[in-house]
Amino acid sequence: MGIDQNSDIILHGFCDASTKAYAAVVYLKSKQEIHLVSAKTRVAPIKQLTIPRLELCGALLLAELISVIQKALRTKPAEYFLWTDSTIVLSWLMKPPN
Known about the structure:
By secondary structure, the chain is an alpha+beta fold. It is 31% helix and 34% strand. The chain contains two helices and four strands. It has helices spanning 51-72, 87-94, and strands spanning 10-17, 21-29, 34-43, 79-84. The protein has a four-stranded mixed β-sheet. The chain is globular and about 45 Å long. The chain starts with 9 loop residues before the first strand and ends with a helix.
């Protein structure tokens, strides 16, 4: 990727899940370009989990993927956004730990 080191870099990550698999993808946005950086997919476990639990697995996969990408970048991203369509997972993540 020919990214200008002086431009503001923004990472956008998305995660989702179904009964069969869960996945995460990360895009890098600079001033004038958007690049697919990485994507990961995992097959859902044989033991049947609820959709919210699989969505949480997708969010964890995204967090791990973002961490690896941030370490690999030569510059620190100005911002990063992590997106999920699961309001249940968002509420779980916003809840203070017990």
